[in-house]
Amino acid sequence: MAIATERKNPYSVFNFTVECKDRSFEGGFSEVSGLDTEQGVIEYRTGEEETVMHKLPGLRKHANLVLKRGIVGKLGLMKWREEVSSGEVEKARSDVTVHLCNEKHEKVVTWTIRNAWPVKWVGPSLAASKNETAVETLELAHEGIKMETQGQTG
């Protein structure tokens, strides 16, 4: 990964790529969302303290990753979803990487989504009166996000 130098302006959100370790996606994605992770909180109090609530870190939670793209006439995303429906979840699990790129199309931030598998596919909303791109959406459950940037891992 290219080492980014210190910048004054933040990166733009429109310059990104999506890759999947064990699959090839025909065409790029127009939108990625769900790069979220949060820590649950366990609250407890002891019987000796009437007004104090203690807090401890609980389980980590990860939002589903949502990928959107224009339909390109290929069945790759639907076939991936059907692997899960037919009970082949372990075969369907794959690492997905999202790369944010700079103006020179160099990868500057990478999110690795571990053991992702499709939980939902949504086809386009069709309407004869609209002039829009037909879009499909794939939602992926996963087991965690790792972020790498400027030679650092988090």
TrEMBL record:
GO terms assigned for molecular function: structural molecule activity
Listed Pfam families: Phage_T4_gp19
Annotated InterPro entries: CHP02241 (IPR011747), Phage_T4_Gp19 (IPR010667)
PANTHER family according to UniProt: CONSERVED HYPOTHETICAL PHAGE TAIL PROTEIN
Protein name: Phage tail protein
Organism: Sorangium cellulosum (Polyangium cellulosum)
Lineage: Bacteria, Pseudomonadati, Myxococcota, Polyangia, Polyangiales
